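Recall the central idea of this unit: under ordinary conditions, the amino acid sequence of a chain determines the structure it adopts. In this exercise we apply that idea directly, starting from the sequence alone.
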Amino acid sequence: MSHNNKNTLNYLYLAYKEYEKYLSVYKQNNEKDNLSTFFELPTFHYTQIDSINNCNSDIVVISNDTESLHSRTYFKQYNNDKFYVIISADDWDTKKYDIGINQYINITHWFDIFDLMNRHFSFYNFEFWMDKEYVFDYPKKYDFLSLIGNERPERDLFFSKLKEKTKFSNSIVKYSGQNYGEISHLDVSYNKPGEFDPYMPINRTNFHNVSNTIPIDMYNQANFQIVVETDLTLENFAPTEKIFKCLLTGMPFVVVGSYNLLKNLRKLGFTTYNELWDESYDNIYCFEERAEKVCNIIKKLETFDWQKNADKLEVIAAKNARNIINCNRHFIRFFKDLEKVVEDLKL
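Accordingly, the structure predicted from this sequence is:
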């Protein structure tokens, strides 16, 4: 791969070489590397506007693998004399959104699933040794847990509705580093109020930070988690580590996210809670109305019989854990998408 900077997608090249070995051993596939020309293309982090615009190549790869459609403020500053292959952690409707580029293809790469797997399932990594099991023992001390990131207008809107609908006295609630519910001694993030940093290091030596930690002892104190995602008003699908940490551990959740986020999670093979409580909020297009419906569900869950439904909740957790373990199929789909790009662009 062309090493234009430290943020390129070199790890994808290494993963593809291992995938090739698998094909040759188990699929008797001795074909030539179909992606060698792709990995030789100039590759830049999405923020490197000057380098991208000054590149002489007609085809440029953009590393947007940890981000989503919200990077379009950068895309709109790219020269329009190139064809862009965007590797993104998002699946958006390219016909609906104008991102300022005339010729491009977005290839969805579920980075957070693969990063989570890499961190938590390899004993060479610090995170492997962390307890990750949500236990379905009841009663729990708290109704719910919610760890919300930096302040944003859409999050402010949801948070104001949540305060109107429910009491925080029996919950753990943090927003932008500020405690609004019970202060838990099990917390691992100690950002100053208003200065939340998801990349604040917990262990610098192992590059372990707030974003990739799982405070499972705190998870196990609450009946469910209110997950507030990054993209809330865009019509896209860009799930992050916030939701995947619940799916990995098995902790039940209600999610404040983009329109049809739960529907799209189910398309990825995950199981949600629509057979146990109302998830129709996911189908509401207007964010303000969706946020109102989510708060109503949260209020109703105060009287949900968690003990009675423990077995059903545990089955859902097991299904989602199994789906994460088999996430290699999403990586294979991604490589096949890349191979099609190579074929279509005649690289």
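Residues 126-325 form a domain with the Rossmann fold fold (CATH 3.40.50).
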